[in-house]
Structure formats: structure tokens, C-alpha cells
Write a structure and sequence with these properties.
Elements (H helix, E strand, L loop, with lengths): L1 H6 L3 H16 L6 H13 L3 H5 L2 H18 L7 H19 L8 H17 L26
Helix pairs in contact: 2-5, 2-6, 3-5, 3-7
């Protein structure tokens, strides 16, 4: 599905593919997606300065709202290139960390348990011992040309 997104010349469709992949990797039936997605992504990327500086939690909630407006109301007008690039970056970092730690994340259940443990550490106010020190973050700088309509 990530490949479908990368090959699409339809902005809204590419964005939707990305959102579906995030949901497939990080959620399970019965989850409240707008609450769970930021928490589970934070487990992988919250240690990066960009998380708070660029307000990733709110941005994830915002792209999820846009996904819902598109899926439930057919509203694709609010989806912007910056939304697609943001979800591309989330997926790049999430997938890179999953595939470089196959013993830690051998199943979706492992991913969810990991995120729950990181959240528990936050709740207890302790420094994380759950996150592997080898988690990575890839940052991109986008030009004005990158942000032009597809």
C-alpha cells in the first residue's frame, strides 16, 4: 500500500493509502483511532526534538480528521501536499524502525505492547527503558517546489 501511495498522482488517494497503512500497523479493532494513533507513533518518534517543536501529536490528529472527512464525507479539498509529505515521513520512520528491530517487533501485538509500555513509563514519569537506543529518525527538508500540487 505504501507503494500505491508513492506511485499515485492523486493527492487524496496517496494520502489515504498512507493513513490506511498507519492504521493497519498501529491499531486494532475497538481502538479510538484519533487518540491511539498519536500515542503509538509517539512511542517510536517522541524522543525526537521534532515531536514537540513541530507539534506532531496535533498534526497527527489533524491528518486523521482530514482522512475521516475524505472517507466519510468525500471531502478531499482539505488534503494538502504537506499532509501527504507528513504521513510519508511518519511511515518512513515507523517502517525503518520496525524492520531494523525484528526481534523486538515481530508482530503487530509486539508493536502495540511496546507503545503501551512507553505510555506507561510516561504516566509514571520515568525515563524510558523500553525504547531501543537504536531507534532512528530520518528528517527531510522540503522545498517550495516539493509543496506544489501533485
Amino acid at each position: 500500500m505504501v507503494g500505491q501511495s508513492q506511485c499515485s498522482n492523486d493527492l487524496a488517494q496517496a494520502f489515504l493509502w498512507n493513513m490506511i497503512v498507519l492504521e493497519m500497523l498501529l491499531t486494532e479493532r475497538g481502538d479510538k483511532y484519533p487518540e491511539i494513533l498519536p500515542k503509538r507513533i509517539e512511542a517510536f518518534l517522541g524522543w525526537v526534538g521534532y515531536w514537540s517543536v513541530d507539534n506532531y501529536e496535533q498534526r497527527i490528529k489533524d491528518v486523521y480528521k482530514k482522512r475521516c472527512r475524505f472517507v466519510h464525507d468525500g471531502n478531499r479539498d482539505q488534503i494538502e501536499v504537506s499532509d501527504l509529505l507528513f504521513t510519508d515521513d511518519l511511515l518512513l520512520n515507523l517502517l525503518a524502525n520496525l524492520v531494523t528491530h525484528p526481534k523486538v517487533f515481530s508482530s503487530k501485538d509486539d508493536v502495540i505492547k511496546f507503545a503501551d509500555k512507553v505510555e506507561a513509563e510516561h504516566t509514571l514519569g520515568i525515563n524510558t527503558k523500553v525504547r531501543p537506543k537504536t531507534l532512528r529518525f530520518f528528517s527531510h527538508s522540503y522545498t517550495d517546489e516539493d509543496l506544489q500540487e501533485i
